[in-house]
Amino acid sequence: MVDETQIWAGERVTETSARDERPPAHARHRQGGGPSQGGAPAGATGRDPRSHARPRNNDPCYAALDLGTNNCRLLVARPTGSGFRVVDAFSRIVRLGEGLIGSGRLSEAAMDRAVEALKVCASKIEARHIVDRRLIATEACRTAVNGAAFIDRVTRETGLELEIVDRETEARLAASGCTPLVDPTSDGAVLFDIGGGSTEVVWLDRLETRDGGPPAAVIRAWVSVPLGVVTVAERHGGVKVTRDDFEAMVNEFTPHLAGFVSAVGPHNCGRLHLLGTSGTVTTIAGVHLDLPRYDRSQVDGTWLGAEQVRVVVDRLLAMPFAERAANPCIGVERADLVLAGCAILESVRRAFPCDRLRVADRGLREGILVELMRADGVWRQRAGAPT
User: Distance between CA 387 and CA 373 in Å, rounded?
Assistant: First the structure.
């Protein structure tokens, strides 16, 4: 198999790239109006960006959509004094990349599931006064031979114009969305975003900005690995997973990190921390906390020690499939994927044996919103305005 791992080392501040690397015109839609005033800081900087507060539907909002290999997710938010408040959200598991590694194509059933989810997103976007939006598709559409044709179908049937982004953009957006959770007293964080079809790992630091908004991401190195929970689970199985199966998953992923580890260089892992954004790490946090049902407010920003992570992974490995499916923080739709995600996490943990892991229930969509709002100067405009 051709190794399509992409590695970049250097330094990039996404505060400027939000303006310099704008999406193409066909992928951005303006409807006039400016950012509204009022509302408490949340979203990029607060603990509860999924607030159920319902502002007037004509309040100017921004929309971010991420169609991945496994999930279809939408956020609609309005700016606040130093961040944003989410006013509508949607998430559905669609498994767009199901069977892709064997056929090289998106299946009809998978495309149908995705289109139905996207119709819901389109109706939510239509219901709001959206001044700017970015709607992206990632690994499944990047690699499928019929990915571009599927994007055309989405436009015909839903009116949404999706943009297939490259892996560098995916890594940058994840970094932008998660930067507020980087410990400012550390030497930065090793951010990992375990997707359905790819995994992005970023050596990330934060830069406080002068525009009144959330901190900007400083990307010192990054790698994109063409393996995610769907592809790894389809190769190795996800229903019955033995210790040997788990180690085989870890060993498949580990070589892809070699160049990234070299780019980071010798480092005191006691001065770094891990920062995870994906269903894998939020599941681990939920199981660790023994939540009776998943609660984002208790998970986002949670710190886990290395031993706590190990205990949960061992617990998941010991669970039969039915018990995993019955767990309220996993569910039947993720039960066959969670151990593949744990194996990818274990590979990252072995490469960077940090004492602390911070859990992020945020990522690409929040990164899109931050970049769109920063490019429009919403926080500069709102400086000094009452919140």
Answer: 17
